[in-house]
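Records of this kind hold a single protein each, on a pair of labelled lines. With that in mind, the following record should read easily:
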Amino acid sequence: MESTSLRVHQFLGLRPGPRLLVTAAVHGNETCGSVAIPRVVDALDQNMLRLVRGTVTFVPVANPKAYARRTREGDRNLNRDLRPTVVVTEFEDRVANQLCPLLAAHDVLLDLHSFNNPGQAFVMVGPRDNDGDVEPFAHEQAESRLALSLGVSRIVEGWLGTYVAGARRRQTGGRSDLRSVTQYGVGTTEFMRSQGGYGVTLECGQHDDPLAVEVATTAILNALAQLGMIDKPAPRPDPSRVEVLRMYDVVDRDDANDAFMRPWASFDPIGQDTLIARRKDGTPLRAPHDGRIIFPNDAARPGEEWFYLTRYSDRQLPT
């Protein structure tokens, strides 16, 4: 039976402070946060963890239809086209009409995700401070401090600008599906920033890795501590131990016979001019810069994102 509601847990501190929203299972097969959140809620209920200021709100299952199916999406990808809508045609429209006002009512977002292949947890942050057209932003330092506090040692920036560049190429190529629309890159964190807040996406590890639940739990507690919302000391991470990567290009699969030159995993290092893949006609695809490949998807269909490229970033992290 299809779900008709979202479960929300909220704790209101008796002193003013930040308003933190923690979400999980925006993609229904990414469930580590859905296990971690009840742990923290129970600790707050049992007074083993004390909220001393601010408001914390938890949504352990943001997409119940996809979660029930254990699939990435229900009718569509909730984290690629998130906005309120008057004309409801898909299940995710109903979710967005509840989730978007919830995002707008908070200051900070921690969105918990996981990924397909084994690998190291990492956190995705938004743009540098800017007043541009794609994603104007004014909370770079606060968002970086949040990202640093979560307990992982790799930060990735540049998502939306890279996605928009890919979407514009698809438009030029004559594709008119949803992936050709700039809006189809806006998910939870992008919507949060559009409302004046800030937030990060934490990729906690491989979907079925039990350690991903521990990463998610630690991240929630660290975020609460970093924001001064619980009676625990804030984490003191060492920025020199954190690798920062900047996404700069997305490569689409044009044909089912386009092929990788080897089985790639996210964050495999690639040197400048490394041969990554070949098109069906033999055209080589080489890395323009030293860096790492991320999100390689050998199951991508023609017209879909095939892999992303990153290079080492010059982003200055707060100390």
Summary: The chain has seven helices and 14 strands. The first strand starts at residue 9 and ends at 12. The first helix runs from residue 32 to 45. The mean pLDDT is 93.
